[in-house]
Amino acid sequence: MASISAIGSPQRPLTYPSENLQPAAAFCNASKDELALASQFADMPALRGKDYGKSKMSYPDYIETESGLQMQDLRAGDGPKPKVGDTVVVDWDGYTIGYYGRIFEARNKTKGGSFEGDDKAFFKFRVGSQEVIPAFEEAITGMALGGVRRIIVPPELGYPDNDYNKSGPRPTTFSGQRALDFVLGNQGLIDKTLLFDIELIKIIPN
């Protein structure tokens, strides 16, 4: 197992198989000097703040759905899958990969651990309720309990332009909210593509 520390939260390691960490390492590096290194993994003009809206990036080793969501299972779950009407409890991280890979959410607990009986601090929503952005809803569909899924979210599947504070998930810290708001609320040519890591921790049947 390999780990990378979340930016601004060195005590919060992400633990996934090393072969799955390569793209995330490139996405989440905030250093300008290392952006060129990140481009070795894929041609990512959006990461360099260029060509917003002119091209859509496709990343290797990701499955792209009809909606345009790109996803990769970092760990396959071995439990049941949620159905419409069920409430799910998830852990998640979020990055503005279209704008210098800035982190806007990083939980303080390592993914993949045992959280039975301790889900109050995690994000909950009811499947099919439209409480979350379309990409989050689509990502949960088909996930099995215990799985970890990484998704690349184009703007049209992310937070709504007219009221981006209405849909979840929302950052749990002021700095994270500010980082996300800067990207979502910016009227300039900023790529609003986001990356999420989602772990399905618990399913509460309807």
Short account of what is shown:
This protein has 206 residues and is an alpha+beta fold.
Describe this structure in words.
The chain is α+β, with helices and mostly antiparallel strands and 206 residues long. The chain has one domain: Chitinase A, domain 3. It contains four helices and nine strands. The strands form two sheets. Strands 3, 4, 5, 6, 7, 8 and 9 form a seven-stranded antiparallel β-sheet that branches. The chain has a two-stranded antiparallel sheet with strand order 1-2. The protein is globular and about 45 Å long. The N terminus is likely disordered. It catalyses: [protein]-peptidylproline (omega=180) = [protein]-peptidylproline (omega=0). This is peptidylprolyl isomerase. It is an enzyme of class 5 (isomerase). InterPro entries: FKBP19-like, PPIase_dom_sf, PPIase_FKBP_dom.
Question: Which tags fit this structure?
Answer:
alpha+beta; single chain; 206 residues; 9 strands; disordered N terminus; 7-stranded antiparallel β-sheet; 4 helices; Chitinase A, domain 3; two-stranded antiparallel sheet
> Which fold does the CATH topology refer to?
Chitinase A, domain 3
CATH architecture: Roll
Strand content: 25-35%
- Structural class, by secondary structure, is alpha+beta
Low-confidence segments, ≥5 residues, pLDDT <50? 1-54, 109-119
Number of strands: 9
Count of DSSP-assigned helices: 4
Q: Sheet with the most strands?
A: 7 strands, antiparallel
N-to-C order of helices and strands: EEHHEEEEEHEHE
CA-based shape: globular
Instruction: State mean pLDDT (0 to 100 scale).
Output: 74
Please give the radius of gyration in angstroms: 16 Å
Q: How many domain units? A: 1
